[in-house]
Amino acid sequence: MTIQLFGSHALKTEISDSQFYHNQFFSKNESESTNSFPENKTVYKLKNSNLQVKGLNVYIQKNHILKDVNLEIPDKKITCIIGPSGCGKSTLLKTFNRLIDDTEGVKTEGEILIDGVNIFDKNTEITSIRKKMGLLSQRPCPLPMSIYDNIAYGCKIHGIHGKKRLNVIVEEQLKAVGLWNEVKDRLNAPATKLSIGQQQRLCLARGLAVEPEFILADEATSALDPISSKHIEELFVELKHEYAIILVTHTLRQALRIADHVVFMYLGEVIEEGPADEVFNNPKQELTRKYLEGAFS
Amino acid sequence: MLTITIASILLVVIIGLGLYLKSVPILEQKSMWQLISSSEWRPSNGEFGFLPFIAGTLWVTALSIILALPVALLTALYLTEHSKPSVKKWVFPALDILAGLPSVIYGVWGILLIVPIISEKLAPGFVEYSTGYTTLAGGIVLAIMILPLLISLFIEIFSAVPTELREASLSLGATKWQTSKLIILRKTMPGIFAAITLAVSRAFGETIAVLMVCGNIPEIPHTLFDSCYPLPALIANNYGEMLSIPLYESALMFAAFLLFIVVVFFNTSSRVILYQIDKKFR
Amino acid sequence: MEHKFLEEKIAKVLMIAATSLVFIIVADILFTILQKGLPAINWDMITKTPEGGYYNGGGGGVLNAIVGSLYIVLGSAFLGLLVSIPVVFYLNVYLTKNSRLAYIARLAFDVMFGIPSIVYGAFAFTIMIYLGMRTSLGGGILVITLLIIPIFIRSMDEVARQLPGDLLDATYALGATKLETIKVVLRQIAPGIATATLLSVGRAIGDAAGVMFTAGFTDSIPTSLDQPAATLPLSVFFQLSSPLAEVQDRAYASALILTIIVLFISILGRLITNRFSKHKI
Q1: A122 three-state secondary structure
Q2: A182, A230, A256, C236: most buried by Cβ count inside 10 Å?
Q3: In which domain, by residue range, is B264 found?
Q4: Among all residues of chain C, which has the CA nearest to that of B237?
Q5: Beta carbons within 10 angstroms of residue A258's beta carbon
Q6: Does the beta carbon of B79 lie under 8 angstroms from any beta carbon of chain C?
Q7: Total domains, chain B
Q8: Are C146 and C35 part of one and the same domain?
Q9: A134 vs chain C: nearest CA distance in angstroms?
Q10: Mind listing the pLDDT tens digit for each residue in B90-119?
């Protein structure tokens, strides 16, 4: 790698880190091929998910926030959307699950096709679209209820009520995010009593409980301490085998660590996108090169 | 400036003290318990049972909350969560007007509209005859008077819920109403209680409007179609004869003192709760 | 799965119904007052005091009540401002935001805000007896002042609290004394004072329970503080109690006059807040 970032020494450390992660999980996979998932976990996705963005333009109160975005998000990979602050990354994410609808003065043009269905179509049922997209926000946002109820909430709003079934789902998702052992004795405690890292994992489990196809993460680790961040990143690397993960990140290092696919945005436009290796090693655009060199952030 | 501030704070204490002191004569005659539990009200015989008035106040206040609460909750939810911002522009002025109307106007309207409706349309379904000047009329008028207070408090409380919470719920695929019902209401429960407490406090003391439609008969109401005689109406109607009958003045001051205690209690508890919630959010 | 959409639809209908209900009620009240009051209103009502036999169908108007209410409200507003402005300044300039005294003071004022006017009336009545006053203009002013002081303090305090702390810091940094800072704060919250005054006046003019046994009632316009004063709300109330239809009609007209005055004050208040909130930070 020939990118100049904070001096070559730091760069070597960067690579080592990412190698470290990859080695951890890839080798684990190779040696325990079918046991790479925790026990009792059912594989939900039997098909491939598809997210295509075509000619997307978003205006908020007459400001042109997203300009002619064309993207295809690959399945079963971690896609990192990088770019300086204010470039529209979060807006793009919020448009994917149409949370943007609630903003005042919003106007959208273009199409976003999820599994072939245009989410802007008048006939599309918005709650079913949102069910496919799990959202993890920047600040962990536990619902004002117990740990158990937080996870069960998603199931209940979609009509799943049986106590036994809910118990299974709750346990499964908590195990999937590695929280089970920490909270199994206090499932009825308020979720707000958890540490912030645990809360974020809880939010992830909550999102997984509705069986999404995509996980949208909006700077999901920026509010966390380094150890919790690492936990979440490890989870993403693990979960990408099942879901398409779209991670908006402010820190280049995070993208370097875990991205498979990269989208670089600047001022509302997609400047460059492609597999991580390509974009980081051979950026085609001048702006991309400048950003990667740390000229602006 | 300090003295004025302290004096103003002490005013509350002074008012309470003053009313209490004026009630002492009747408290010397009969115990507090006797006064509150007896329903015989014959001042010229020296009998002062406050139970009918306390009962009347409770009935009318409870009724007003029962009627106003669902309307206020639904309206506040609609305005904060489900409507276009332009709707607010119309409703807020309407609420302001409602809040600012003098109570005598409500009384006039009550007499013109509510009382006849009760007497002619509602009562025949339930009782033999009713003048319309009933507990129900008092409850309805009072409910409308506390609506603006409840609605504006609820709007304030609901608006304070962080957007992320709504977004989290919506992202899971919940409908807006599910979010309102399961998340917003749940999160704002303490605030809702505090608001209701404040509204109760306001309803307790409302005098003129209720007086004009409630019938003013000093008996415990047994149905909604009976007349009632709330405490504030008692004081307002009889201040003229206060000085002519012994102990009457003291009795009425005692009624005022009762009102004072209840209102101060409800007010303080609700404000304290609201302050605590406020602190948590900031 | 289906029923969650059904629930959503039903909920929406209920919510719209509730909001419309509020609207309809306001409209109905205003309409009723207009409908009943308009036919009976004429220049006499506003310009004359009750002539002999007014309550039995004779001539005259409610000028006594209009002027009486005006006197009481102006007097109380003046006294109220006199007391409230220093208090608000003390709370916001001299005390720190988190001081215990400020908390207790605000709590006390909130409580006072919630005390019903009838209790103030009863209290003022006892004071008047103690001082040997009879029901009079002075008594009415006393009660209404007590009633509106908490309203003043609360609204002005709310405006003052929203002042950015930097403003005060900036003035202190320039070496201003506390007194000079007050002038700066005064200019900032002047619109707040105006709206608070309007709010209080609107509330004061509509109050009946407080003035009932303190201001008394009379058919003439008071010329000194110890003469009884009539007030509009009581005037409506007494006229309404008459068995004569003509007098009742005049009650409606008086109610209409009162409503118009209150609405006017309310609109004025709104205009001032809107005009000045453009400059708000």
Answers
A1: coil
A2: C236
A3: 47-161+189-281
A4: C212
A5: 24
A6: yes
A7: 1
A8: no
A9: 19
A10: 888 889 899 999 999 999 999 999 988 888
